[in-house]
Amino acid sequence: MAHVRENDLTEGLSGKFGRKFVFKQLRGKTIVARTSKPTTKESALQRENRNRFKKASAYAKAMMLIPEKKTYYWVMAKELKFPNAYTAALSDYMRKPVIEETNVVTEDSTLVVKVRAIKKDYRMKAIKVVALGQDNAIIEEAETVKDCGWWHYRFRKEKETIHRINVVVQDEVGNVLSREIVV
Questions:
Q1: Which residue segment(s) compose the domain that 172 sits in?
Q2: Which H helix or E strand runs over 87?
Q3: What domain of life (predicted)?
């Protein structure tokens, strides 16, 4: 990679030159480099990561068009020491929520489910719980309430009718994670 200095002919130039050279602009400087060889083989994981990054980029671009979201991501960019709001939005999309812990306790013959779920540096949207009966029919479904770092919900149905509980975690971006608890 070569740096072009004090050359009026190539200053500010960018793009492909012939088949072997590429002019790039990097931090206000003109750089000349050889063209990269195109990749011929791509693994399934590489393809999946490329598609995920493409979706993250589309999400970040869309968030920059919504003033409230752009402001939120500027604040996050400053907190996380990112260069701009776009990068913060990209990071938000790429990070997935994590269910750290789930507890199910019995109080007054009803079940109370407590969930500790986080997403590093960003906010969660909702955590839903779904109570299923023995025949996998939905008995009760509701959003949890956050209190002191735990999201919790008290079921209205009797403990004996509930056989499984599905915990569904969703972040602001739309990433979804679920965990099943057998009662």
A1: 98-182
A2: helix 85-94
A3: Bacteria
